[in-house]
Amino acid sequence: MAGDVEGPAMRRHVEVIAHRGASATCPENTWAAFRRAAEVGADRIELDAQLSRDGAVVVFHDSELDRTTDGSGPVTGTDLVDLSELDAGSWFSSELADERIPLLDEVLAWSVGRIPLNVEVKIEGGGEPATSLARAVIELIRRHGAARTTVVSSFDPVAVAEAARLCPECEVALLWDGRGDGDPLERVRSTGATALHLALRGLTGELAGRARDQGVPLRVYTVNTEEEMRRVLDLGVAGVFTDRPAEALAWTRPGQVPSWGHFCNPHAPVGGSPRGHDLYSRSRSRSRSRSRKISEVFWGGGSGEELFFRKVPSPRTLAGRPVTRNAGI
Ligand code: G3P
Ligand code: CA
Q1: Most buried in the list 8, 62, 64, 259, measured by CB within 10 Å?
Q2: pTM for this prediction
């Protein structure tokens, strides 16, 4: 039964990591996605870090700007001043045209004391670029006093080794896409990493068992359905990356998470608490006092065994509607 979340595996604690923020319902790697991940109570936010041409660490996934902005060409070939003007939200929703490519510096400042990050050093090919980006990321993490709470990860073994060397108190994870030859746990050891982040396709009971025996935390990407969640939890993974943190929390911790709310609100308050409840209250009072245009409203219900949502066409103006159960969380 789809809503049956009472099995022992589903009750086991697993770290729920919002992959590129709450990226199923907000534009990936933007403030909207990060705020939403914090609002729903995700345990951690995963994001991608790259260098602009002039050396700023920006939060962006693809190597090219074209898919998720109104710009084009390589991120690493564009100066920060130009990157900062790009619209990083319209590709997802016309209501989110104000979204910009965040700076890692700013996201770290916002996240400390609120929600920990997993910064992926987004580079492949090794050499000096991998080393430079890893160094820049570690420097920012240290500047914000976040070394003990942040996970740094990369597919690139050179970047992993450099991060592990520069930041022994950081948790450094090797990313493994499950396609290549070799033993990912051996690569974890040889690079000095302390954790393994594995593509779902590469997950086997044998590998999960060896990771557990070796004391290597194993986190799996990307887990977006309840069926996938059951499978990975049965194998005892430490964490899951998900584009749908609200649902993942409902699947894994029934009764502990709010299940009403719209999924992406570009006007959500910037401040707030580490957990969503204060934001919810604040957002509720704001919504009573004035109209708030939002991009998508999902009316939903359920608090454990069943969870359902129904999308309402966007945009909607909330004034005059029974929004008190829908604003915020
Ligand atoms: O860190 C897990 C996952 O984000 C790695 O793949 O392509 O989403 O960055 P990708
Ligand atoms: Ca990533």
Answers
A1: 259
A2: 0.80
